[in-house]
Design a protein that fits this description.
mainly beta; D-amino Acid Aminotransferase, Chain A, domain 1; OB fold (Dihydrolipoamide Acetyltransferase, E2P); eight-stranded antiparallel beta barrel; seven-stranded mixed sheet; elongated
Length: 471
């Protein structure tokens, strides 16, 4: 029989905003209303309630409605709730029964196909919950609160199972794309962390390293990421990063990764907190994202609004690769990763659509002259003489002879001939470089990538990136 005595016993109307109606005859409705409330209590769960004989008959479902048949989930039968609870949202104070935030996840009408003490079968007509569901209680009397909830019919849209793990796509080593290719690329910082995938299902997270090993127990501070996503199912790709003095510390991360004992991991989470930086989305709500272009996956990832105490979606940049690289180096990072904007995710492959750029820098340079080419470059130039502005001229910083396409060679040669002059624009140039040099008016500004500066102030191993666009 419907009874609110247990509900009233557990709640004090002076300490909780929940509705606690006075004892009186129960109202009667049409027994066709349901509500699902997302309850962020000590553990996230979903409360599913059906209007029945003047009360809301209720189950707490730790992982929410099963999205497809064949995957039953635990549903714990709880005390009846008053009908007024169907519209309740709010914060139940800490220390009170069920303390935590309560929001309405969905509501609507239902049809009861079967309803008895052992079997409840319903069809839900909600905004988010639609379909036929079955609650079954087959337990002995001491376990009678534990039911199994399963979906009976398939969902309207074709769903793919949320994978436990996807072999990660990896980058090749390389350098910045040429400037004329910049519109094809996006850039991310390289975080010096540990590659990890986070799987979220029913508000629970599973964390696996790049080998697929379950390391969830090592990082208890990331549990809240699943609670933030709630009923959203997702597989994220990213990195676990520990910081010391504001910079990523692989050594600190290694100390965390070695510990899986619950008590020790909890202590270390306070002393050496780890962040999860999600930069790719592999699966979302029953649909694989692997074949989507990188920028579309990024758009969906951003839409998840992951921003918590220990997790973020780091920025990606759709241009100015040299500036992104410089910013990364200035903040103690090893470099950046360039990713083709239209590239799909290739599981388990080291693909040239992702390029890891480390050990190099970028520099704007002025072309002050050139040296004739030979062999295959006869009629063109062999190298360009480069400088940076200093006073009323240029300080010579070296030559560059690599990184040119045939088209670039032909175009630059025509431009250099038009800019020829008799005198050098440099303050001075080493004799072995100026012997056969042809000088030009210093109007052309380009960009090179290089491995650092020599003691003499020359570019080490420069490679041409392209002419800078005119301001």
């Amino acid at each position: 029989m419907p009874d609110l005595s247990e509900y009233r016993r557990k709640r004090n109307p002076r300490r909780t905003p929940e509705p606690v109606p006075a004892e009186e005859d129960l109202p009667r409705g049409a027994d066709d209303v349901f509500v699902i409330q997302e309850h962020h209590a000590s553990r996230l769960h979903w409360d599913i309630r059906f209007e029945r004989e003047g009360v809301l008959v209720s189950w707490a479902v730790p992982k929410g409605l099963p999205p497809e048949p064949g995957k039953p989930r635990l549903a714990v039968h709880t005390e009846d709730h008053p009908l007024e609870y169907a519209t309740f949202e709010g914060e139940i104070p800490a220390g009170e029964y069920g303390g935590g935030r309560m929001t309405i996840w969905d509501h609507g009408r239902y049809e009861a196909l079967h309803w008895n003490d052992h079997k409840v079968e319903v069809i839900l007509h909600g905004n988010r919950a639609r379909g036929r569901y079955l609650f079954v209680n087959r337990h002995s009397p001491d376990r009678r609160r534990d039911w199994l909830l399963q979906r009976v019919d398939p969902p309207d849209d074709e769903r793919e199972e949320l994978p436990a793990f996807v072999a990660p796509m990896c980058a090749v080593e390389g350098t910045l794309p040429n400037l004329d290719e910049e519109p094809d690329w996006a850039y991310e910082f390289r975080w010096n962390g540990m590659r990890a995938q986070v799987r979220v299902e029913g508000g629970r997270v599973t964390i696996r390293n790049s080998s697929g090993e379950d390391v969830t127990a090592n990082f208890p501070e990331l549990r809240g990421l699943g609670e933030q996503l709630g009923a959203t199912e997702a597989l994220l790709d990213g990195e676990l990063v520990a910081f010391e003095q504001g910079r990523p510390s692989p050594e600190a991360l290694a100390r965390r990764a070695r510990t899986s004992a619950a008590a020790q991991a909890k202590r270390l989470a306070t002393r050496i907190p780890v962040w999860y930086l999600a930069y790719d989305l592999l699966h979302l709500d029953g649909h694989s994202c692997l074949e989507l272009p990188y920028l579309r996956r990024r758009e969906l990832l951003t839409g998840l609004e992951l921003r918590g105490d220990r997790w973020r979606i780091p920025e990606h940049y759709t241009g100015n690769g040299a500036d992104v690289l410089e910013a990364g180096l200035a903040n103690g990072l090893r470099g950046i990763v360039a990713k083709r904007r239209d590239a799909a995710y290739r599981p388990g492959r080291r693909a040239s659509d992702w390029v890891e750029i480390t050990g190099v820098r970028a520099q704007e340079v002025v072309i002050g002259g050139w040296r004739p080419g030979s062999g295959g470059r006869a009629g063109s130039f062999g190298s360009l003489l480069l400088g940076v502005p200093e006073g009323d001229g240029l300080r010579y910083v070296g030559t560059v002879g690599t990184g040119f396409t045939e088209e670039t060679l032909a175009r630059l040669t025509r431009m250099l001939h038009r800019l020829e002059r008799k005198r050098s624009p440099f303050h001075s140039v080493p004799a072995d470089r100026s012997r056969d040099a042809r000088w030009v008016r210093p109007d052309l500004v380009g960009e090179v990538v290089f491995n650092g500066w020599t003691a003499a102030g020359r570019l080490r191993s420069p490679r041409w990136r392209g002419l800078c666009p005119e301001p």
